[in-house]
Amino acid sequence: MTTSNNKKSYRGLFLTWAILTIAGALVGIFGPSRLMPRSMSDNMHLTILTMVVFTVAAAPVAAGVYASALYALRHWAHKGSEVPPSGPAVRENAMFVTTWLIVSTLLTVFLLIWGLGALAVDNSSTGKNPLVVDVTGQQWVWSFSYPGTHVSSPQLYLPDNREVEFRVTSKDVTHGFWIVNMGIQVDANVGVITTIHTTPDKLGLFNIRCEQFCGLNHAFMVTVGHVLTPSQFASWLSSQPQQA
Amino acid sequence: MSIDTESEHAAHGGHDDGHHEPPEVVDGRQKMGVWLFIGGDMIGLSAILFTFLYLRGVNTDGHWMSMWGYTGHPYSYYYNILDVKGGSIPNATLIKVGPLSAGLNWFVTVLTVLSAGIIWMAERGLRATKNVKSYTTMAGIATAVTILSIVYGIIQLQHIPQIFTAHNDSLTMAYTAYDSAMMAVDGSVVIHLFILAFLGLGLTIRSARGVINGTKWYQARLVRLFWVWVAISSVIASLVTTTVNTIH
Amino acid sequence: MNRSKSLGVALASVLLGGGALALAGFALSSASPHQAALNCIPSQTAAHTCSLSLSTFPDSMAGEQGNNGGVHPDWVSYSNDNLAVPANTTVDVTINQYDSGGSLNNTFFDRVMGTVGGVAIIDGKTVSSVDPTNVGHTFTLRGIPGSGKTLFVSVPLPADSNTKPVNIGQGQYTKPVVVQFSFKTGSKAVYEWNCEFPCGSTREGQFGEAMSAYGYMSGTLTVN
Amino acid sequence: MTTTLEHTKTASIPQGGGLARRQNFLTGLIGGAIFAWLFWFLAHHFLDATSRTWSDEVAASVTLGWIIGFWLGIGALNAPGRWLIGKNNTRADDLYLAGQGQGKSRYWKFTTDHKVVGVQYIIMTMVLLGSGGILAMAIRTELIVPGNHFVNQQVYNGFIAVHGMLMILALIVAVAGPWGNFVMPIMCGARDMAFPRLNALSLWTLVGAAALLLTTLAVGSLTMGWVVLEPIANQAGVGMDFFAMAIIVFTVSTTVAGVNTICTVLTMRTKGMTLSRLPIFVWGAIIAAALGLYAFPYFSLVEAMTLMDRTFSTSFFVANAGGEGWLQANLFWLMGHPEVYVILLPAVAALFEIAAVMSRKPVFSYRTAVAGMTGLAGLSILVWAHHMFTTGWAPTLGGPFMLTTELISIPTGLFFLVLIGTLWRGNIWMKLPTVWMFGFIANFIIAGVTGIYLSDIPLDDQLHGTMFVTAHFHYVFVGSVLFGAVAALAFWFPKVTGRYLNEFLGRISFWLVFIGVQVTFLAMFASGLKGMPRRYSSYALIFEHTNFITTIGAYIIMAGMLVLLGAVITSWNKGEPSGPNPWHANSLEWLVPTPPPLENFDVLPVITEDPYNYGEELVRS
């Protein structure tokens, strides 16, 4: 293979890479957000954004591997039953290895910085008058109670735009409390209270599913929740039967 | 791969050479094998002690050595009350079991260390004096000491107190977190002691039959390596379990 | 081997293997118990109303588990597990509760929830909740058909403290507590129901054995 | 190339020899059955005389009886017994144990020859993959439409637990078992493994464990997932006792095999086989073995504790008695994450080997390859809590574990560097192993990228416990490890049988499995993103389409694997003859006759350079 040929064909490699990168980035931008459930909280907005950013960041890397593999197949594949002649005896290429290491380290550092930043945002709490909800998992029913009100319910009702702190526990085995539309989950453990918090910012219906295997009817340990306006929430709360 | 065919026959005289490796090569390989098994066993011990310390660490609210339930009677006593007479058992009380006897624990450990010392002395004697008879005797003594430590190890396991708990009409037996962890630690020690007893018995018989002797002592050394490790692990386990045993 | 022969091998592998797998699947499927459905009996008097009658037993001698109580004669059981009701109908349920009881581990379930009027009739008395320390079982129905519509019904069944003996099947029981309630079904869906009183006997939450096994203290409600 | 190495002189076949020489798999089964019954009788009599069904104590006793009886029956305990009474094996004994002059029957015996053990591992891998595959098809059939129509949810829960564990076992042994035993000692220039009897012990112990695991479904309800989640494992039926004992027995097998592999590589290399001249596959095998030696003690301990909770009423995982479910999660994942690399590394190393031979080039950056594998193994023991991000255990450790987890992408990236670098400008011989290797490259990048999502805690808070995770690790295990394993099978098949694995059938199989994997698991990613949790026996209508596609894809994979099975069966005896070195490779396993004679080498070779001297001046032979 002559040098000019090489240059020409490496252009092909670059083109394949570029096309695949763009395709990957497009999938990243439009794919997950289409598939993922309606976002109803600050955490879920961040989750979807992270998904998009990571996919776009991964696209050139994956495209690089695919393009090289396709390029190798296109140019160096040797068909037939006879053994091909030996290739060039290249054992090392310090430049290439170093570049690869630097690039992959930089990418990892980027992922880490983004991840730690997102984690900090995810965990940050406004601390302003959060609504506390006690969540109890029992095979295979969720129940929610609102401390200080004697109200409990098999469905979750939340006011809009107010931070909610969930205190999650279990009566029997480990369950996984997951608000699908709010991007938060934490296990419900026996004898332990785990907490998570989020701030709903869209009105409407959302799904709650158990994401930790909990036995016979695990698939049916589901319920729904409602985000209401603060006044609707107050009237719902007062309309509920009081439990001792 | 390039094979240097010139030196092949120079290095090895006959045709059958290499099928019989020199004994010291085989011995070295077996020693490495024993060390690797000891390495795996070290992970096992650390995992057990991790369990012990983890359970200690999470039970800061008094559940480490105590539990709501009943004790003092055998299972059948409560079973009769519940299922035969149809009554209800009295209210559960908070039972504090307290730490197991550190003396008994250390007694088993000291016996293990003693047997390890004997087996080490015996091996040194064998290599120095080539006297197989005294080796057989000492290996026999070490085995007997090990069997004694097995007996006390089992006695120790039997001293772990059972507690009965009842919910509605079903009665269950249980152990506190401390007792559970102790059962893992002591159970592991007893299983290791069984292996030592087997190995000690083997050394005794083999040296009595002359398979182990003044020139072929390598197996004695391999067994001693493992034996000393078991003794050390027993000491480590006892150190941890008898120092981290406050009730609160 | 030439190509056509190879293709033959490929085809044979897929057909033979697929056939063997289908057989294995059939065997697995038939080894998995599916009980015959108990259909809701339409009311003669009122439109869109039907009635279901169930029982809860302290053992398995009178339920669906067979003459000798099946593999686990001592496990608590519901009389039926697979229930079928019509869509958009009021279902009147009567449960004869023959078992003793104790304390709920989650007092949430001492309430009557999701029934018509939020009440149940227990031995003739209309109640909206019961004593949480004296419950035998619960009938708790939930599940999600997918579109956000939910059906949640939970009725506590108080413990049976009667002494008058009754014989049903091969089981000997005492006169039951009778619990009656109604709920309304929506569109077609499959729901699961189970008992939320901890009546299994393993240590974690008393939810083992009969509580965790198909066909004892749980079942399916099909709306069709 | 290989002409001067003759078959070992046949020593006279020993005649007679008593009971010990009549033991085989059948006597093992009989022994196991007798002891299982005996232990059942004793346990039932002394521990549990009243119950009509099995209690946990009885079930655990039966499993113990089975494995002891199986060991006795097959002859695994002969060696310790003979050691105890001071009898050493003669050379004739050793040769008999190695299967000399016993024809095909040696494959059914406690045979110590590493090549026999290697073939037995091939069969065991196929048995485990096959039975796990049947369960996979059952699971997908159940999920083809919403609702529990095919089996009920209790049976389904058993399927997911046993499918998971069978496949984990299958993949742990899929590359390291057959090729770590058949070719690895020859690659090092050894006559056998370091401890041939332990080698046979590890194989037959695996058989004993697999038998226990396969019976769990028949014995009772398994409501705990393959990870044996606590505290729910405390609720499961007696099948759980079989399950736990199967794992404990299995860890005995892997520990013994790991010690054997390490000792073989470190002490049995022939003269001149320095560590830097080792074929790269040997590096993968030894690093995986060392990692396994670290990881599996946690596995046996956590299962032993599960069994103790169930039989002795201890409280390791019982919260109201002072135990904790998170303890199980910690111990399990301390084992569980290294175990992923115990599975992955041999497959990757085999692919390095294949890439070099098939592209007629040296392994690109051999040192990077070894460093990458070592680094991955080292990092993998520091990442276990990333499986527990959403459990609520130690939220403050989330950041550090995210760090270690994301660092893993650096050594993983080096694998692509080595593979692509080796292929680059080579003359890539497009035979069956190469084809499957390209499949690996395509799938492994998807596995890697989706792994990055899951390592990020805010994203994991949405994706953990969903089908997204399931799809991710199936891209790792099916898309990557299985492809590597099939490539290795196609590559070394001629060395075992003297025949090629049918190229045409192999390619049909490749395309079916490759397409099937994309269809199945891309749709499964979609299910996960939409919000479908894993281990669901039934699901809401919004997941209908993606699940249907996944099931169709799974059937395509099944068809592909069946074609592969057909190819293996037909090629084994009737395939195209390959000669001793079909790929014109230079490593030692190709320079001995096919099939390699007992004890491999007539005269041990002396090595002067590594096997990757393609295109270099020094090429000889």
Overall strand count of chain C: 15
> Helix count of chain D, per DSSP?
20
Q: How many helical stretches of chain C?
A: 1
Sheet with most strands of chain D: none
Q: Shape of chain D from CA axes?
A: globular
Mean pLDDT of chain D: 91
* Secondary-structure element order of chain D, N to C: HHHHHHHHHHHHHHHEHHHHHE
Topology-level CATH name of the largest domain in chain D: Cytochrome C Oxidase, Chain A
Could you give the distance between the termini of chain C? 56 Å
CATH class of the largest domain in chain D: Mainly Alpha
Q: Architecture of the largest domain in chain C, according to CATH?
A: Sandwich
Counted beta strands of chain D: 2
CATH superfamily of the largest domain in chain D: Cytochrome c oxidase-like, subunit I domain
- By secondary-structure content and strand pairing, the structural class of chain D works out as mainly alpha
Please tag this protein with its features.
heterotetramer; B: two-stranded antiparallel sheet; 7 helices; elongated; C: 224 residues; mainly beta; Immunoglobulin-like; 2 domains; six-stranded mixed β-sheet
Please provide a written account of the structure.
By secondary structure, chain A is α+β, with helices and mostly antiparallel strands. Chain A contains four helices and eleven strands. Chain A has two domains: 3-75 and 93-123, no CATH class; 131-239, Cupredoxins -  blue copper proteins (Immunoglobulin-like, Sandwich). In chain A, β7 and β8 (184-188) form a beta hairpin. The termini of chain A are far apart. With 248 residues, chain B is mostly helical. Chain B contains seven helices and five strands; from the N terminus they run βααβαβααββαα. In chain B, strands 2-3 form a two-stranded antiparallel sheet. Chain B has a two-stranded antiparallel ribbon with strand order 4-5. Chain C has two domains: 1-32; 35-223, Sandwich (Immunoglobulin-like). Chain C contains one helix and 15 strands; from the N terminus they run αβββββββββββββββ. Chain C has one helix spanning 3-31; strands at 38-39, 41-42, 49-57, 77-78, 82-85, 90-97, 120-122, 125-127, 135-142, 153-158, 165-168, 171-174, 177-184, 189-194, 218-223. In chain C, strands 2, 3, 4, 6, 7, 8 and 13 form a seven-stranded mixed beta sheet that branches. In chain C, strands 1-5-15-14-9-10 form a six-stranded mixed beta sheet, with no helix packed on it. Chain C has a two-stranded antiparallel ribbon with strand order 11-12. Classes of the chains: A alpha+beta (244), B mainly alpha (248), C mainly beta (224), D mainly alpha (621). The interface between B and C is small, with 6 and 10 residues.
